[in-house]
Write a structure and sequence with these properties.
The complex is a heterodimer of chains A (111) and B (889).
Chain A lengths: L5 E2 L4 H13 L2 E2 H11 L4 E2 L5 H10 L3 E7 L5 E7 L1 H27 L1
Parallel strand pairs in A: 1-3
Antiparallel strand pairs in A: 2-5, 4-5
Chain B lengths: L1 H15 L1 H25 L4 H12 L2 H12 L2 H19 L1 H30 L11 E8 L10 H10 L3 E16 L2 E10 L3 H5 L5 E2 L15 E4 L1 H6 L11 E4 L2 E8 L15 E4 L3 H5 L15 E5 L5 H18 L1 H4 L2 E7 L7 H37 L1 H9 L4 H30 L23 H27 L3 H5 L13 H34 L9 E7 L7 H17 L5 E5 L10 E7 L11 E7 L3 H5 L3 E4 L13 E5 H8 L8 E4 L2 E9 L14 E5 L7 E7 L4 H15 L9 E2 H8 L1 H35 L1 H9 L4 H30 L15 H27 L3 H6 L1
Parallel strand pairs in B: 3-8, 5-7, 14-19, 16-18
Antiparallel strand pairs in B: 1-9, 1-10, 2-3, 2-9, 4-7, 5-8, 6-7, 11-20, 11-21, 12-20, 13-14, 13-17, 15-18, 16-19, 17-18
Helix pairs in contact in B: 2-3, 5-15, 6-13, 6-15, 6-16, 7-11, 13-16, 13-18, 13-24, 15-16, 18-24, 18-26, 18-27, 19-22, 24-27, 26-27
The chains are: A alpha+beta (111), B alpha+beta (889).
């Protein structure tokens, strides 16, 4: 396994999941995992299992909802979609992430 | 915040949907893996590789599930539920152990809850129907130089009420009895003389009619109205809905029934349930002794006050003391040396709260002891089981359970036991809440009323006790678990020796504690029992055997004084003529009865009272032949005869203490004493006797002839060897022959009267005795348990000893000596504790030192006998050890 792969930062997984569902529409767990790996161009090392407790956490907070459905290859799968609260949360978290990374960049540049 | 709440409800809901959610999770993860496999297959992997890759990139499936579950439910609650289920399973598996443990705890917690309910219902919250009873305080007078509180006079009370700023209302409440006839049934009932504000001030609203109206408590006999109790209305009046406005004869005066009190209201007197209330204006008719509402010297009132909100007892007492001082200066003749005192309800001196207070205080300590002993027993049982479960615990530790998880499991088991014990205990308390009254004899045919109260405070306290018990129970196995040594525990148990070393010390320690606690209780019971014996053995100064007392209520039957006098004369003659009667005499009061003697300020020729001293002395009005009948010897002079009547010179008989105090021991015969403005000549000196209580110290007292100070409410004393029942029949016949409408009070011996007067001591002895016996039994069970366990664990040692030539006697001695060693330790500890604690029995003890050697000695004897009995079975079993087998095993 290439050592340049980075671990998913604690807390950023939520943001990634929310963003993925937001851009892909209702999606099942496997799809979300694939999509995150694809977009991160395999640079992110994600234990797919860790996704599920995260999905549950988001659902408990009311940011996503789940529903059983049929996948593209005719398999029963649980589909997750964003709620209004979830969309709002995504905007807020994306903003705060932006501020945070901008600040870290600035610190790194100046010192 | 909203998210937190949402998360919580989500998690909570998950607790109940566990099976379905588990199923969901399973399906979801399976579908994930299958999709991954499919994708890999499409990428061209072999089926095995495809599956392997899918699993690898997923991470551990079980671990994911575990994480998911933690996120899904409430892990704390889930493990607790798990522990509960497991705990119940453990209890079911050993039903004998569980039953014994729960029984011990039921007794321990039940005894506590029952006593709490008594304390609550009798001392702290005696009047549940009264609004804000926490603002209610008792009010009495005080007199300089007297330890006992006194009653209050009506004019004093009115003056206090007028001036006192911090007291919302003064409530007069004087208990009295009367014969109540409804239809053809007559019986003795108790009622109260109250101020007109009574029902308003205590916030009790009659369910029919009204309470008393302002002004109904003034004017001599001006307002013959009454409010009757709910029970009376239901029972005697058959719930008559049109009762208001009807009349009822009370002490021969027709009273209009103006109201019916609500259900559950029994008046405001601890010990008796009031059946009716009359306003103070009618007091003369019930109290006798003249019209007292305008007499500042006539002290007859027992009262309560309601403090204004926010006023403390101390502030109110300050103000009321200042007002009493002013009354002293304004009315020196009647009020010199007089004060006024407020009491919390639980110290109310004029009802049974005051008399039961010391007993209940002792009971609180006693039940804590019983609880500790019960806990020690259960702790011991748990300990035995924890040895048996050591293997289970070790395995659980070995496969990775945390010690804290194990401790939590043990705590849950303790909690189950004590919760079941508490449930049983509350049931016991519920049954026993009114049991206190069973220990008191009914007086004059009226049963006492001493209800316990199980309210939220009692429940909360019992829960606290239950939690405390849980912690105590938990400690033992917890310490034990802390000491489990994995490597050691997997090795075989080495054989023990009887009562020897190692882990046994915890159990032995518990037994020593049990023995010491029950020893303390035994000493206490012994002391109280001796005290009661001393009280009973104390000569009251009159004959208790062969004298019967009773009374005829002439007031209630409407007799006026002349008619009552001729009735009394005729009855005495008839009674004297009865076979078996040696003599008979009337007296206003029978000694040691419930009621108060007349008292008066006196003046004596040649006696100068020290300033500030109020020479108030009690006296009794007695008929001819009284002293001979009741058996009070005369030291000198003569007793009253029929010649001492209205027309003769006024005379009096004084007692020895009075001679010492007022005549400095000189012979007073022929001297004069002034009573209520009348001079009387002393004609005799009687020996001191007991008047109101067996435990009173000798006090000045005198007697006057009944004829010269007539009272209609007279007690009849009869000297006869006949028993009360035989006498009652004969007496009733004589009374009926004179007047068919008269009812006779119960006929009892003076001994019975004496016994009734000592009933508080009797109650204390009974309660401490019963609980002491219970404690002894529990301790004996504990000792038995320890010894039989020790014997069963040391068969090898016993076998070895037998093989080396020890015979049955040696083995018996071995086991007994180990058992007695534990007892000795417990007794030594208990004796030390008892020496420190028995003085708390203080005023329940009469002529008995708290360190009485007899009480300690007999407690020791009982303890030794009990422990020998407890050791007997284990010792016998020890002698039955088969040495060959014991050594082979």
């Amino acid at each position: 396994m290439p050592s340049s792969k980075s671990e998913v930062l604690q807390g950023t997984l939520d943001l990634l999941v929310l963003k993925t569902i937001d851009s892909m529409g209702p999606m099942h767990g496997f799809g979300i995992a694939m999509r995150i790996q694809q977009v991160s161009e395999d640079l992110l090392r994600l234990n797919q299992g860790t996704l599920y407790p995260a999905l549950l956490r988001l659902e408990q907070r009311g940011w996503i909802v789940s529903k059983w459905g049929i996948s593209e290859n005719n398999r029963k799968a649980k589909y997750y979609s964003l709620t209004r609260a979830g969309r709002k949360q995504l905007v807020e978290e994306a903003e705060s992430w932006g501020r945070m990374s901008a600040m870290i960049n600035r610190v790194l540049r100046t010192s | 915040m909203r998210e937190l709440f949402r998360t919580f409800t989500h998690r909570l809901a998950a607790l109940f949907l566990r099976r379905r959610l588990e199923d969901d999770l399973d399906k979801e993860l399976r579908s994930h893996l299958e999709m991954a496999v499919e994708l890999n297959l499409r990428k061209g992997m072999t089926p095995e590789d495809a599956r392997g890759e899918a699993r690898r990139s997923f991470g551990g499936v079980e671990q994911t599930k575990e994480n998911y579950r933690d996120q899904r439910g409430l892990p704390m609650i889930e493990t607790t539920l798990q522990d509960l289920r497991f705990g119940f399973r453990m209890l079911r598996r050993s039903p004998g152990f569980s039953a014994l443990a729960i029984l011990c705890l039921t007794l321990g917690i039940g005894a506590n809850a029952a006593v709490f309910s008594w304390v609550e219902g009798i001392l702290f919250r005696p009047y549940p129907a009264v609004t804000h009873q926490e603002q209610l305080f008792a009010l009495t007078g005080t007199a300089r130089g007297e330890s006992e509180p006194t009653a209050i006079s009506w004019p004093d009370l009115l003056d206090l009420q007028r001036s006192c700023k911090q007291i919302d209302s003064f409530i007069v409440n004087k208990i009295m009895g009367t014969t109540l006839s409804v239809g053809d049934r007559a019986e003795v009932t108790v009622g109260s003389i109250v101020s007109a504000n009574y029902f308003t001030a205590i916030g009790v609203h009659p369910i029919l009619g009204r309470g008393f109206e302002p002004g109904e408590d003034s004017g001599r006999n001006a307002h013959p109205v009454t409010v009757i109790s709910y029970q009376l209305w239901q029972g005697r009046f058959k719930s008559d809905p049109r009762i208001i406005g009807k009349t009822q004869r009370l002490n021969n005066v027709l009273h209009t029934i103006v109201g019916v009190a609500p259900e559950g209201f029994y008046g405001t007197f601890v010990g008796w349930a009031m059946q009716f209330w009359v306003p103070a204006s009618m007091e003369e008719n019930f109290e006798g002794g003249g019209y007292k509402l305008e007499d500042r010297g006539a002290r007859w009132i027992e009262a309560y006050v309601r403090l204004k909100p926010g006023v403390t007892l101390k502030q109110a007492q300050l103000e009321i003391s200042a007002l009493a001082k002013r009354l002293e200066t304004d009315f020196p003749a009647t009020n010199r040396g007089r004060g006024v005192k407020l009491w919390p309800l639980w110290q109310t001196p004029f009802n049974n709260a005051g008399t039961l207070l010391p007993t209940l205080e002792i009971m609180l300590a006693v039940v804590v002891f019983v609880l500790l002993i019960a806990c020690a027993n259960v702790g011991n049982l748990l300990l035995v089981r924890s040895f048996a479960r050591r293997h289970e615990m070790t395995v659980r530790l070995a496969i990775g359970a945390g010690r804290s998880r194990l401790l939590k499991q043990l705590l849950t088991e303790g909690l189950i036991l004590s919760a079941l014990g508490a449930a049983g205990g509350l049931l016991v308390a519920h049954w026993c809440r009114h049991a206190l009254v069973l220990l008191f004899p009914a007086r004059g045919g009226v049963a006492m009323h001493l209800p316990g109260e199980i309210d939220w405070r009692v429940l909360a306290l019992s829960t606290g006790v239950c939690l405390m018990a849980t912690l105590l129970l938990w400690l033992v196995p917890a310490i034990q678990t802390g000491k489990i040594d994995l490597a050691g525990a997997l090795k075989a148990d080495s054989a023990g020796v009887v009562g020897g070393g190692g882990r046994a010390w915890v159990r032995s320690g518990l037994v020593v504690m049990q023995v010491s606690l029950s020893f303390v209780l035994l000493v206490g019971a012994g002391l109280l029992m001796q005290s009661l014996q001393r009280v009973r053995a104390t000569s009251p100064g009159f004959s208790t055997r062969g004298v019967l007392v009773t009374a005829v209520n002439l007031v209630a039957a409407g007799y006026d004084a002349p008619r009552a006098q001729s009735f009394q004369d005729e009855l005495i003659e008839r009674v004297k003529a009865l076979p078996g009667v040696e003599s008979a005499a009337f007296g206003r009061m029978t000694p040691l009865s419930y009621g108060s003697f007349s008292s008066t300020a006196i003046a004596v020729d040649g006696y100068q009272p020290p300033p500030e001293e109020q020479s108030t002395v009690q006296y009794n009005e007695v008929g001819p032949g009284y002293f001979a009948t009741i058996g009070i010897p005369l030291v000198s002079g003569r007793e009253f005869t029929r010649a001492d009547d209205e027309k003769a010179a006024l005379v009096a008989v004084v007692n020895e203490t009075m001679v010492v105090q007022y005549w400095r021991g000189r012979n007073p015969i022929g001297e004069r004493v002034q009573v209520k403005g009348r001079w009387m000549q002393v004609v005799g000196v009687a020996k001191d006797s007991k008047y109101e209580s067996v435990r009173e110290i000798p006090k000045p007292f005198f007697y006057v002839p009944l004829r010269q100070n007539f009272s209609r409410g007279a007690g009849l004393h009869i000297r006869t060897p006949l028993n009360p029942e035989t006498m009652a029949t004969a007496l009733a016949r004589e009374v009926h022959a004179l007047d068919g409408n008269l009812a006779l009070y119960e006929v009892i011996s003076l001994q019975e009267q004496l016994d009734r007067s000592t009933s508080p001591q009797m109650v204390a002895v009974t309660l401490v005795g019963v609980l002491g016996g219970l404690a002894l039994l529990l301790a004996a069970i504990g000792l038995y348990g320890v010894m039989s366990y020790a014997v069963s664990q040391s068969t090898r040692e016993l076998g070895l000893r037998m093989a080396l030539g020890a015979d049955a006697t040696n083995l018996l001695r071995l086991v007994f000596s180990r058992g007695l060693a534990l007892t000795a330790g417990g007794v030594a500890l208990g004796a030390a504790v008892a020496l420190g604690m028995t003085r708390l029995l203080g005023n329940l003890l009469y002529k008995v030192s708290p360190r009485d050697p007899l009480a300690f000695g007999s407690a020791l004897a009982v303890m030794i006998i009990a422990s020998l009995a407890a050791c007997f079975l284990p010792a016998w079993r020890a002698t039955r050890t088969d040495p060959a087998r014991a050594l082979r095993d």
